[in-house]
Structure formats: C-alpha cells, structure tokens
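Structure first, sequence second, as always.
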C-alpha cells in the first residue's frame, strides 16, 4: 500500500469503525489495509498513490458498464441541474420501472428503495404481511442485506429455527428464520412437511454470490417454486447481484423460474443507490397506501439515481451485450483454471456469465460447507500477489469477480498473465 493510502486509512480509522463504511472494504480477510481510491474509468481504478489496477470488484457488482461511463455521467449531471430530490413523483421513476418490467415481467408492481438491504427487508415484510405468517426460510451462505431477520445462521439440525448471526439481533426475531444448506432440496421438503403452514417465504439468491459464486443445481430453483406453491408460501428471488448481470432478465430469465417477489439492487442504479422490490400485483397492492403493509423512503426514486439507472439499462440492451460478457467470463475462467493447473494448485472455478469465483479447493463447490473447504490463507497470498501485479480482486475468497463491458481483451490477457505468475510463486512458496 502506498504512503498516501496509509495516511488516509489512519485518518479514517479515527472516524469509522475499522476505517470503512462497509466491512467488506477492509482487507481483514486477506491481510493488509485497503487502498484509497482517487478515481476510476472503464476497467481501471486508480488509488491516491497513483497506482492503477484492472478492477474486478466493480463496486461489488453495479459497474457492469465499467466506471464513469460517459453517458451515465452525463445523465446524472443533467438530472442534477434540475434538482437533486423533491419528495414528489417524477416521470423518471416510471421510465425506469418500464425498463425494469421489460426485463423482469414478474414485477407487475414494484417499489424503488435506496439499497439492496432495504429491498430484501421490505420484500420479507410484504411476504409476512400477505401470508400472515412469521417464519422465513433462507440458505446458509446467502446474503440478503443486513436486516435483523436475515442475519441469522442455522441452529443445530435442519428443523430448528435460527440463532442470531450478529450481536443486536433479538433471539426472538431470529427464531423465525430457518436456515438450510444451499442446493439441498430434500431438507426444504422435510422442513415444509413439518412446518409448512408457518413459513411466509423462501428467500434465495438464485445464483449464490456471497459465499463466492455457486450455481443452483438443476431442479433446485424449480423445486423451490413447486414446494412454496404447494404450501402457500411465497418464493422471493434476491437478484441484487444476478439481476441485469447473468442475463438482461436475471436468473429468472436464464433458468425460467418465475418467483412471486424479486429484489434488485446494484446494477439497477447504475452506480447510484437504488434497490427495487416487486412482484405479483395482488401481493404488492397490499403495500401502503393501498394496503396495510407499511414501507416508505424520503430519497426513494431519487432523480439522480433514476437517471443513472435509465441510462445504464438502456445501454445494456445493445445487441450482443450479454453474449460478449459471457465470452469474457469464459475466457477469464479458463485462464484462471489453466494457470492453476500449470502451477499444480487445486482451484475450482465457478462461473455464470460475467461473475466467477476461483476457490482454492480440490472439491466441487456447491454450498456453504464445500465453499469453506477453500484455503483462505492461500487466497490472501494470491490476492496480494495480484494487487502487486496491478489486478484488483475482491479482498475475500468468498466473493465474486465482476467483469464489465469495459474489460478489454488486453485486460483479460494481462489478468491471466498476472495469475500465472502469482500462482507459480504460490506453488513455489
Ligand atoms: C449486495 C447484496 C444485498 C444488499 O445490498 P446493499 O445495497 O449492499 O444493501 C442483498 N442481496 C444480495 C444478493 C447482495 O449481493
């Protein structure tokens, strides 16, 4: 880390816990301290010491067009000149909603909020209000933001209710959250057989992204659809990462499963704070002011954020946009796999479209338990070696690499070359 970053980090530690405003930004999982950003453009991010990196964090997903896309920047500037917030409706909200619905026909009605956390928290409230049930089912290793009900890990045994995963989450609330292993449809079946009438909703990342990228096994999403329908529970897809990422219409388009409610975030705001929740009209029309489920937001539908989202989603509709991203993803995944094989280091790369994770493990990664077999120490060494070579990966083994449309062939080749060196050094160490 450069001197200027070190100084800024020390200053920041006097104001923010751990020097950061979101814990994943600290480099605690990989060792060292974070670099401070000066600016970013396209595939590159530059720190305050003047070092430039090929960036695969992409603000943790939103920057699918690359950083500071000129058309998105211009749209934000234009919107700002007309005022930055009104607390009254604008046409921009309807225009963005039209684009969202074109991509996700299951969102018959929706609400804009300001983060993915807010979207998931609100979707749960709607599911509970609509079904008049309190329990929810989630999967180990899936992250749905930091609302109380969602920071819960499994109790012992599949049929016990959850215990808090964070201090400050009341046990009385956590016990309404049931947690099961990802991809384990049989456990879902038996839990519903025992407690089906208590469960308001199943919430799932249709492709998991927050324990590293993990694909749904064939039949998993379809099975969740069938089981929830049989028991009168709602199916919520948390597409905060996958939405507009693995296809224009997200996982529900790619896998052909239609949930009752969907949460979006990240890309939909084009780099500004936007979340969306929505779904079946009969459910969403229970939300205030039409119904008795309350949810609100002073900055919801913010005009700058709407403008950034509209411009971004418009650009995503360019011909072959997703095919090109897919090819880039494939190229990087193959490059990583070959580099690992050459160094004789066991690595498993999971990928869908332009998101991927290379796990430092020799076994297939299909859930949280298998993800945890990864050698996080090795990942930390690899991460730092890549950073030294001008490549910024996520500062944790259990995150995705995000490829953008701005990543060039040269970027990808340089990244694979860096990985070859880094892995060879790791094998020699
Ligand atoms: C990032 C993320 C969230 C939370 O979104 P924030 O905007 O960080 O609050 C929720 N769900 C998933 C799947 C995410 O990746």
């Amino acid at each position: 880390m450069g001197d200027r970053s070190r100084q800024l980090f020390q200053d920041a530690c006097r104001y923010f816990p751990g020097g950061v405003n979101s814990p994943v930004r600290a480099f605690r999982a990989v060792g060292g301290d974070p670099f401070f950003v000066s600016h970013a453009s396209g595939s590159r991010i530059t720190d305050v010491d003047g070092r430039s990196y090929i960036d695969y964090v992409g603000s943790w997903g939103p920057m699918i067009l690359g950083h500071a896309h000129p058309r998105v920047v211009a749209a934000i500037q234009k919107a700002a000149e007309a005022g930055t917030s009104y607390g009254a409706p604008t046409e921009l909200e309807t225009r963005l909603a039209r684009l969202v619905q074109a991509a996700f026909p299951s969102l018959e009605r929706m609400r804009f909020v300001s983060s993915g956390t807010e979207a998931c928290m609100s979707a749960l409230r709607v599911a509970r209000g609509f079904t008049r049930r309190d329990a929810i089912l989630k999967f180990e290793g899936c992250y749905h933001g930091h609302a109380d009900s969602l920071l819960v890990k499994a109790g012992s045994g599949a049929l016990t209710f959850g215990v808090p995963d964070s201090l400050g989450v009341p046990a009385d609330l956590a016990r309404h959250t049931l947690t099961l292993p990802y991809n384990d449809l049989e456990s879902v079946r038996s839990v519903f057989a025992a407690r089906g009438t208590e469960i308001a909703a199943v919430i799932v990342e249709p492709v998991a992204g927050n324990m590293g990228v993990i694909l749904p096994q064939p039949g998993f999403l379809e099975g969740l659809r069938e089981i929830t329908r049989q028991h009168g529970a709602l199916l919520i897809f948390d597409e905060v990462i996958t939405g507009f990422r693995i296809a224009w219409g997200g996982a529900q388009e790619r896998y052909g499963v239609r949930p009752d409610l969907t949460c979006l975030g990240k890309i939909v705001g084009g780099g500004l704070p936007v979340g969306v929740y929505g779904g079946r009209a009969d459910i969403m029309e229970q939300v205030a002011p039409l119904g008795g489920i309350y949810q609100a937001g002073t900055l919801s539908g913010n005009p700058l954020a709407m403008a950034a989202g509209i411009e971004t989603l418009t650009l995503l509709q360019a011909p072959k946009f997703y095919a090109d991203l897919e090819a880039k993803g494939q190229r990087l995944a193959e490059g990583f796999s070959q580099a690992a094989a050459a160094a004789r280091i066991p690595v498993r790369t999971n990928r869908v479209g332009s998101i991927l994770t290379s796990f430092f493990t020799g076994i297939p990664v299909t859930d949280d338990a298998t993800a945890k077999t990864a050698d996080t120490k090795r990942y930390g060494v690899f991460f730092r070696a890549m950073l030294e070579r001008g490549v910024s990966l996520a500062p944790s083994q259990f995150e995705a690499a995000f490829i953008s449309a701005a990543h060039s062939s040269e970027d990808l080749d340089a990244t694979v070359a860096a990985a070859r060196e880094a892995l060879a050094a790791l094998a020699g160490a």
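Margin note: Residues 115-117, 120, 143-145, 205, 209-210, 238, 240-241, 265 surround pyridoxal-5'-phosphate (CB under 6 Å).
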